[in-house]
Amino acid sequence: MKRIERILFKLIVIQLVCLIISQYILSFPNLSVYLTKIELYEGVTQKAKDVTREVYNHIGK
Question: E strands along 1-61, which residues?
């Protein structure tokens, strides 16, 4: 049982380190543009009229 606990603890620590590193990298605006597409999903790169039309088209379906 101790062996499993050690393995789980190591996995948790590795996961935490990866999370911290990835959040640190994404905090730079110049790099986050290339690493994430969340702006496209949120629609902040489109004009407001295009987003409104897109929403109404989805509602009508």
Answer: none
Name residue, tokens 């543009």: 33
Q: What is the largest CA-CA distance in the chain?
A: 59
Q: Which domain holds residue 12?
A: 2-60
pTM (two decimals): 0.52
Number of structural domains in the chain: 1
Which amino acid appears at position 51 of this protein?
A: V
Residues 6 or more apart whose Cβ sits within 8 Å of residue 54: 43, 46
What is the residue-level pLDDT of the chain in tens, covering all 61 positions?
A: 899 999 999 999 999 999 999 888 888 878 766 766 666 666 555 555 565 666 556 665 5
